[in-house]
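Re: folding output
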Amino acid sequence: MLTLDHPTSHKHSFPTHDLVKLEPFLKGQLAQLPVTDSLRNHKLAAYAYTVLVESDPRREELKQDFVFASMHHLKVRSSLKPLFKAWADAGLKALVFKGFFLAEFVYDTACQRAYGDVDVLLEPEQAALAADIAKSLGWKEIWRAGLETDAAPANKISHEVLHLEHPDYPIRLDVHGQVTHVVSAHARVQNTITQKVWEAAEKRDWEGSSLYTPSLTDALLVGLIMNRCWSGDDWCLKTQDYLDFKVLAQKGLSQDELLSRAKTLSCSKTLSLFLERCNPFANRLSLTPPTTAQRILWETQIAFERGMPRLERYLSFSYYLLIDSFWALPSFVLALCFLLAPWQLQAFMNRFAFKDKPLYQWQALRLQRSVRVYLYLTGLYWLKPEPLKQLMTFVSLRRMGQPVTMRQIKGERVLKLHEERVNFS
């Protein structure tokens, strides 16, 4: 079944009171251990197991989390080892940062730091060679900058250049060309920071090969703080942020070094705003999500450092929404006509030649977004809009050259594309 619907988000949203209950534990008050379900929801169960004393009876309930997290990291390491070695042998410089880097090189025990995707920084022009080497080892290329795939159009603007997935184990590599988020083509700040991160990076021997890792200050300022304040995280802290900060400080990161490096990277104001809510040096942590007013205020305060990333994201979204809506206007008008005069539909169906081109998922999502725009604008969204939504989807797909058909099956009108039912609800 081909589903044309809202893009799904992989981010989890937790009630504020649940987040606040975690604060004492994260700051080291182990007596106030949250319930096990809460620890698991926030990916802190394995960490909790390692910090409780051996005689603590609560460890037994958390043991399986410790074992599973340990096994997962070992599997990730063994899967990455041949890939990173092949990249290094081909002369590619790979810098690991964020979750995997912290687990492997910073935390005392790797399982203490849960992570999902593995983040790697490469020179953008090396993406094609990196992809070819990865595919020769069995990895799947999900998306590459400049190529049109289900994931994104060829002209997508991003700080990432390549997405790879392991063929047998659920590991995804997010390969970055720039170390901080990019929304628009104007990325001078991001390019400068990326270059400075490379200059301060450390080359390490790792599993018979070599890897690059960021300095401790850059791991915090770039991998954590900029990632929270300059990205789609939109200033929201994650439960592991305080622990990451604290562990980096324990490894030798000093407050003076942090402030000095922030000046070099031109992010002093961003750092000071972050420290107001997350600062192990001052035993300060507030996981309460910021209000819209706070976000706007903070965004204006960092404008001279980074510009206004939230505004950039909004403008980018609005631009594509406007483009898609203008394109979909004829589809909306025609769908209304066919709803009132269905006998005209057959003549329309014969007007468009089919094109031998796939319908990418990003196209399907943008198509349905434009459909919803007209349903909202006309107020029809709340008045059983299914027939109009179906007709507008059908007309749009035909205009794109897709061989979509409309059939009556058991009294129900059904859209099919390549013999798959189109679910547009």
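--- second protein (sequence, then structure) ---
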Amino acid sequence: MAVINMDLKNLKRQQKIDLKDLVKSIAKGNSPESKISVATVQEIIHDLNGDGIKDKIEVYKNTSLNDKFDQEHFHLPIKIFKGTNSGFELWKENNNLIYSVDNTCASEGFSNIVVKNNYFTIEAQTCYDYNVLVNGFTTFKIENNEIFLYKYGEEYFDKSNHDKKIPSKVWIQKNLGKIKFQDANESFLKKLKNKN
């Protein structure tokens, strides 16, 4: 019992936090633990739109899934925040772009986001059947105040026949039209693949 009392004496008084201000701050992407929160899989800070102020891309866990690996790799929400002089403001979001869990194959799902100048690429893995792994590369381009699908590419690997060469495929904006970031989704990419 003395140990408990001793611990209670050593507790420091916590600072009061205004819950409304905290919620507003988090909605703007300015959480107190802004670097990487528990629910964030990846965060990239980069000047995407070329205005001299850094913007932010965040990929979030899918907490609706039970498996810890699946939570960090499949059907993940993505939010893009525009940098301002006072922090970050939500700019664009997409909850349906990164591949869903496919129980017919073992794949890695989301792996990375790569940024270069005013382009960013989402790298993820799925499969066509149990044997053929598909590494997908979805690239977006920032133009003025909008984000458009620039190209989508796939590379293939046959797990049952490592020597089999399957040609890569690439779909480009010229053939796709102007697809906004928030309108590009997994079902759109599937339809695109089924056309060829």
